[in-house]
Amino acid sequence: MAQIQMKHVSKSYQKQAAVLNEISFSVEKGEFFILVGPSGCGKSTILRMIAGLEDITAGELYIEDQLANDLLPKDRHISMVFQNYALYPHMTVRENVLFGIVQKRAISKQEKKERLEKALELVQLQDYADCKPRELSGGQRQRVALARAIVSESPICLMDEPLSNLDAKLRSQMRTEIRQLQQQLGLTMIYVTHDQVEAMTMGDRIMVLNKGSIQQIGEPIDIYNHPANTFVASFIGSPQMNFIEATVMQQYKKSYLNISSQLSIPISFFPNKPKYIIGIRPEHLRLKGNPEDIQLNVIADLVEQLGNETIIGFELEGQKWKAKWNGQWTIRANEPMTLYLSKKEMYLFDADTHERLFYSYKDGQREKGGIIV
């Protein structure tokens, strides 16, 4: 049963184009659901509409099967963690955590105390109850905001880019802690981010947004392996997928996708358009290959040694490309090198719509893919 459901929801402001267009999705009870996309795509607006902080222009929002379009925020049983933590500087950690429930007469003083102790223990802030926010680090302030959501005991928790103000090491630590808390408490969590690493490592499912429209919904690894279009393919994955235009060429009753003098790919389908877009992930360009692999002779104009991986940049037909390998490789810039590419690891997209095309075969079954076979 869906705990949250949006049906054909749109949002627009006066004299402005629509911020959201016909958004429809559902979130199951206990699910960690990620909204990901570039700045301005409508992620936070969706979150604020669920919380009741923004009106819905058109469409329907259901919470626990109840129409919630006009439901007051306090009646939605939802907690929210903001990007800037939203802590009161004059209050102690204890007072900040209890702020949301302090006026609720239905909750006894003893129960409030028990909830506070449990929440502070979960976020490891037992020793900071009497501190003010200015005495805390960024990570500790974020934990206070989490404790405030926990103490409300709301079954649904919304998070709006909660880790964006933290450094890389702390973000990694907090990702793990938030995921563990969500699972431990059985929360239904909707989490907004523009960081694809957060999306890939934390979510049960991801919804990718762009310009107010849903691009794709699915499990993280599914979206990575089977992107719906060039936007999803470029947004999920680092470095992003390489793209290049290919022209159909007929020769000796066979069809080829021609990219350059050194890259012409035989295809097993009947092409119905003169041009396509080929996508290749950087990690699929290898330094060693098989006899049937396609070979690319390139000159690396960029070498990035990151310790755990090596990234090179090169140019192909005027396009900037990147290749990536695990480990440390001794590669010098401006020296010629050969890269190997399997045809089975190439994605094909419509040059007009940018949607992924064609089918691949897995275990004898035909399944929609994006890989040329």
From TrEMBL:
The keyword Lipid biosynthesis is assigned to this record: no
GO cellular component term, pick one: ATP-binding cassette (ABC) transporter complex, substrate-binding subunit-containing
Keywords: ATP-binding, Cell membrane, Membrane, Nucleotide-binding, Translocase, Transport
Any one GO molecular function term: ABC-type transporter activity
Protein name: ABC transporter ATP-binding protein
SUPFAM superfamilies attached to this UniProt entry: MOP-like, P-loop containing nucleoside triphosphate hydrolases
InterPro entries: AAA+_ATPase (IPR003593), ABC_transporter-like_ATP-bd (IPR003439), ABC_transporter-like_CS (IPR017871), ABC_transpr_MalK/UgpC-like (IPR047641), Mo/tungstate-bd_C_term_dom (IPR008995), NA-bd_OB-fold (IPR012340), OB_MalK-like (IPR040582), P-loop_NTPase (IPR027417)
Short name of any one Pfam family annotated for the protein: OB_MalK
Residue span(s) of domain ABC transporter: 4-236
Source species, domain of life: Bacteria
Gene3D superfamilies in UniProt: 2.40.50.100, Nucleic acid-binding proteins, P-loop containing nucleotide triphosphate hydrolases
